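pasting for ref
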Amino acid sequence: MATKTNHTKSKPKTQDAIGLLEQDHQTVRKLLRELEETTARGIKKREELRSKIAEEVRIHAAIEEEIFYPAFREVAENEEDTKLFFEATEEHGLVHIVLPALEDTDPTADEFGAKAKVLKDLIEHHAEEEESEMLPRARKLLGKERLMELGEQMQERKDSLKRTRGVAADAGRSSSPRSASASKSSKAKMA
């Protein structure tokens, strides 16, 4: 009688890159909805959600910017593919401005809710566009095997960023020199 070996306990089954990104989108959408439902009296809840959102968004942005987007750009076949790549990176640049502005806002301030709503709208638009345009195109261009490889790389990077929270906090800000400088100048203007 053959002995069954179960390797899934030591290492969970790897998702393909698209599944991983879509799962991240669901997580962040849920957290943003929860934040939107808070009030200025729920300071601790707002702070906790803001912190979770910031970590999730920065890690997600890092794995997209470092791994997924470059892989997509490598296989881009036409002008529309290239346009999808640049739109996605520009939207990340905006998130890298709005997120620090939210982090710098007192959770009891009137503008906190407005900044949280702007971040939610921006991320929802970005995720919806990726899911309806970029990810289906990536599935076609990259193929199943490459998407599995990317999913594994992205999960490893994600795990690494989560283990080193200090790095995770800076992952989004430092991934793009333009975004980092835009974020700094924006913070100064918004403060």
